[in-house]
Design goal:
single chain, alpha/beta, 6 helices, 26% strand, globular
Length: 113
């Protein structure tokens, strides 16, 4: 199992509440799609963040094409959209692929440590 698959879990409309909203630690949700080139660009960055912060942050992906309810519930229109959830509530979000350092800054991930 690679670092990518070991630390990035896929969530669905059915598992979103349990995996994200009821999590004891902050959760970074990657709203993604198979047809999205920027999503593929950001995936290794997210895998690296997930591996480095495995004890303090959960990183999951949600395929918007297969899970339209959650996508609509959070008004996600562009991919990738990254939303950081804390205590079951959206805390910060970033749209588009970004370098790792910028993602960490924009999402306030150092505060989650």
């Amino acid at each position: 199992m690679s670092a990518t698959t070991a630390h990035l879990r896929e969530v669905t409309d059915a598992t979103f509440a349990e995996e994200v909203l009821r999590s004891d630690i902050p959760v970074l949700v990657d709203f993604t799609a198979d047809w999205c080139p920027p999503c593929r660009m950001v995936a290794p960055v997210l895998a690296q963040i997930a591996e480095e912060r495995a004890d303090t942050l959960k990183v999951v992906s949600l395929d918007v094409d297969r899970n339209p309810e959650t996508q609509a519930a959070y008004g996600v229109l562009s991919m990738p959209t990254l939303i950081l959830f804390r205590n079951g509530e959206p805390a910060r979000s970033v749209v588009g692929a970004q370098p790792k350092r910028r993602l960490v800054e924009q999402l306030g991930l150092d505060e989650a440590r």
